[in-house]
Amino acid sequence: MERRAGRPPSRPLYLEILMTQPVDARCPHCRTPMSRWANPQLSSWSGEYQYVCFNDECPYFVRGWAWMNERFDVTASYRFRLDPATGETGPLPVWSKEAMRENILPEEAASAR
Ligand SMILES: [Zn+2]
Fold this sequence. Notes:
Elements: H1 13-20, E1 35-38, E2 49-52, H2 59-72, E3 77-82, E4 89-94, H3 108-111
Antiparallel strand pairs: 1-2, 2-3, 3-4
Bound molecules: zinc ion (ZN).
């Protein structure tokens, strides 16, 4: 067990990053870390969760209200969504700032200890 004496930790930096940040879970529109969000049971998404930007100041979300209103005459917007299983991104439609928040997963399991 003495063979490692004096040697620096050899784990490459890229592995360190991959292990602590499985995907780039920051919103590309506002640079805010995104929340893990449980997939609805009756959805076609395959994984257990996706990353969703729940920042109410996010430009993507903010301009979504006007976009939806102009084109569809509805009071709704969408939040930025990233599926970590496929890397696919897209809009998650919401009808209020509070909508969909009940599906946000607690982060204790990942960050505590
Ligand atoms: Zn955002």
